[in-house]
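User: We ran a pulldown and think these components assemble together. Before we commit to crystallization trials, I'd like a predicted model of the whole complex to look at. Sequences follow.
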Amino acid sequence: MPYLPSTSHVTLLATLRRERMLPIHGEVVVRPGQRVDSSDIVARAEKLEHYQLVDIARLLDVSGEYLDRYLLKQEGDEVKKGEPVARRKAMFGLVDRPVTSPVNGRLALLSEGKALFAALSPLELRAGLPGEVTDVVPGRGVTIETTGALLEGIWGNGQESFSVLRLLGTMPGAALPAAGLDLSLRGAIVAAGWVDETSLFKSLQEIGVRGLILGSAPAEQLPLLQALPFPVMVVEGFHAQGFSEPAYNLLAGNSGREAWLNAQLINRFTGARPEVIILLPPPSTPPPSPPEGNALAEGKRVRILRGPDRGRVGNILSLSERAVMLPNGVRAPVAIIVLEDGKAARTTVTVPFANLELLE
Amino acid sequence: MSATAAAAQPYRAETILAADFGAANTRALLLDVVEGEFRLVAVGEAPSTCAAPFHDASEGLRHALGRLQAITGRVMLDSTAQLIMPVNSEGQGCDTFVATFSAGAPLRAVLVGLLPEASLRNARRLAESSYLNVVDTLSLIDRRKQDQQIEAIVKAQPDVVILTGGTDGGAQSALLKLVETVGVASFLLPDDRRPAVFYAGNQALQGRIGEMLSGLANFHLGPNVLPELNHSNLESGRSALGELVKTLRARRIGGLADFDHYAAGRMYPTALAEGRMIHFLSRMLNTPRGILSVNVGSASTTVAAAFGGELYLTVASDLGVGLSAWTTIASQPWTEFARWVPHTLTEAEVREFGLWRAVHPFTIPVEVEDLQRELALARLALAGALRRARTQWPTNVPGLHHSLMPYCDVLIGGGAVLGCAPGPGAAALVLLDAVQPIGVTDLMLDRHHALAALGALASANALASVQVLESDALLRLGVAVSWVSQTPLPAGTPLGTATLVDANQKSSTVEVRVGELEVLPLPLGQTGKLTLKPRPGVDVGAGPGRARARPIEVDGSMVGVILDGRGRPLSLPATEAQRLEATQRWWWKLAGL
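Assistant: Here's a predicted model for the assembly, 953 residues in total across the polymer chains.
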């Protein structure tokens, strides 16, 4: 029976579609077929800051059931802070009792003489990824399609940016070279194997880079990376290993191109993963979308996720259906993998199915 | 269901298929009549397809059934991949289908009740019995203004609001004020984000609250969880909430609604089904002592405990060995993890392990050291879930001391991490370390997630459920005896002796010492008599220094009789060198790797 592993994309060229959705309901301001740049606004919404309840009837000294006749604003109306929303004049107009809005926002609800005001701030959703709008979900967002290379990561700090990619370091495992940090990197998305000196994070911040892609980052660096004011994505793991060969080659081949770094948080339930998409000119025939959800099969390229060969990349030579006893006594079906680097004495290794991910 | 009632049910020879949709794996269990009794025949397992990129349970079950077919030769699906029901003339398919599920992200829940120590406490117990993540609570003592409470609910965007409060015929106006807050918050949310409101309060207000929330929220009724002061009614509340959780999960995971249809509604949250079986066992054994089941999953850990026929069910939705590995490690000082590993680890190594496991939750250990880390993670998840569970347990159950585990006759461990441990001794060691049972306890292993399947099956075919449980569905790991000294004693001090006489009158005696584990083997299928002679001041479940009046009859098991002289609470040696030596010795003694 087929075994369905997870898939990690190190895709050199593909048609890529990404949903851009508001976290709350709003308004989509682009249409299908429209081309958008990274900074274009595709949807807008009003973000709730806080609510404030005002007992208008009590302030006007009227019964709630008669409040309607004193209201200047209705439920759903936009309001400005200090703007009168209800007014009661008495004593032939000599007594004027206005009730004003306590917030900039909206009169969200009117009930039994009370008003619930919502303080709102504008929320703009930008395209992020340049391309063509292929689908619109009214009130929610859009799908944008583009052509490019795709590299997925395993950790992100929740931010995103669009800029030119610059790879530093001459080999996959190389640490970020301090000597290579200069003002020419200002505004760039920098990629490097890993960072051995945490003071370099401050240097990157001072230079004004717009993103950081690391092959790996030791676990203790993650709080620092989380706090950086630009997006950071970790591709491979949580110690000083750098990039895998395929990931490094993809970045090296595209250094200098424009890229969208979306360092979103990984979520196994929804499938969200941090990723970088490097824009490439579309060939005459649109390339296929990256494969997803394929089964392990002979010849497939895989990365080893656990065990003595963790992080190494190879191709499946054969798959065993019967469970095999592992060195620790656990029994599991295994695959024979031919390693790509071939530098070690062993060029084939035996790995449980569960410890493989497809590289597509 | 009682054992008598189960036995009285008419015998129906039928083929039963039970599916379990977990976060990491999908399992298919085939139960059938063998030599006149229902037995667990085979289990097929495949990676779960409930999460991305599939978001559909069907694919995983199809693969699990494929493996089942490879083992048994029995075809379960027709040419259109539909379940064959009932069994056809070619002997394909099944007559009864039941299912359990734990896959999917925990649902976000807001709890609303009148008083923290009354209705809100019951609301929390209800929420913690399923796959919910409590994001906020509201009660009469909430210091926030009403507009701030509304804002909190709107920003929390809950999937479920559990609304409790008022004994039947009790307080009304205070509860209605809270309902108003929930109703306004729900009104302010977009239609497709409005929460389901599960009302389990004063029954006299059902109609009124239903009207207030009409058109504002999906209103679901449950029984009052606190019908009278000092009288909780959680059992039916759990079932009703389970139905709601099923409905909400089925909206997000394709195929679940179809499988519920095949199961004629007998698809339950895994924890609920497990709890039912523990509840049943407690009533069947009619013991005031505890019956305990602990299940460590990838995303969550479940503790089902029954004392005197009353069930206490706790799901720790953020503790597990895969998807929740990082939150499990981050929930406690890193040293709590490292202490269980018989090699030295640094903080960075512990954190790296937790992060990596969370990113690649479905991987398995290959080397012994990695396996030891995996099992340390299981201990951490189990211990954390037990701490939460014990806050809900009654304080008047039999036990040695209120700070220690109450006496439990049976302790059942489950979850892939225990089920796949290379030897039964490794699973037994994890259970002993994490749960730290007191007195004499039967240790069992639920290798195939059978407990949940049988809990789901109980309503369809109770006889089958009982017969499978009494057969070899659960693996007997051993009988654990804890030797607890009232006063601290130096390591190596004798605590007493244990003598096991097997059916052939062959006798083995061992001296139990402080800080040591000893094993008296008794193979499966054999029986023996165990005599415990503790020294004065040492308790083996019969009181300090008291030997049992009669020898204990014990059944054979995978490991045998395990004599645990490591104290309660279990304390590890103070120095790192001694700790390494002790944990390695214990590992060798039970796991033998």
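The mean pLDDT of chain B is 92. That may be worth checking against your pulldown data before setting up trials.

User: Thanks, that helps.
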